[in-house]
Amino acid sequence: MAKEPKKRREVRFSPGKIPKLTVAVVGIGRVGLPLALFLAEKGHTVYGLDIDQDKVNSIIRGQMPFMEDRAQELLTKYVKKTFLPTGIFSSHNFLLPP
């Protein structure tokens, strides 16, 4: 007897209601860091992963590695709260910037 394929669970979102996610942004440079801060501002928990530990430590201290509109303000507001820069993480959702 053939085994019935496992059914996929359908997820539906109500208009205007997006669930809060825990995500990892791999690479927190010119593209990944602003993306991570944007997602943190929207209420998601964001792990920012980078292999450059000096950059990670600098960001944890609240220092932007480059100039970007509003980025310093967002970094100061969300670092160590909903934006967690690290080299070690666990997440179910991944955003990979180019």
List keywords for this structure.
98 residues
What's the gist of this structure?
By secondary structure, this protein is of the alpha/beta class. It has helices at residues 32-41, 53-60, 71-78, and strands at 22-26, 45-49, 83-86, 93-95.
Account of the protein in words:
The chain is an alpha/beta fold and 98 residues long. 27% of the residues lie in helices and 17% in strands. It is built from 3 helices and 4 strands; from the N terminus they run βαβααββ. α1 packs across α3 (71-78). The radius of gyration is 17 Å and the shape is elongated. The mean pLDDT is 86.
* Cα-based radius of gyration, to the nearest Å: 17 Å
Order of helices and strands: EHEHHEE
Percent helix, as a range, is: 25-40%
**Strands ordered across the widest β-sheet:** 3-2-1-4
What composes the largest sheet? 4 strands, parallel
Oligomer: single chain
Tell me, briefly, the overall form. Answer: elongated
The parts where pLDDT drops under 50 for at least 5 residues are none
User: What proportion of the residues form beta strands (DSSP E)?
Assistant: 15-25%
* DSSP strand count: 4
Q: Give the helix tally.
A: 3
The helix/strand class is alpha/beta
Average the pLDDT over all residues and give the rounded result: 86
First-to-last CA distance: 46 Å
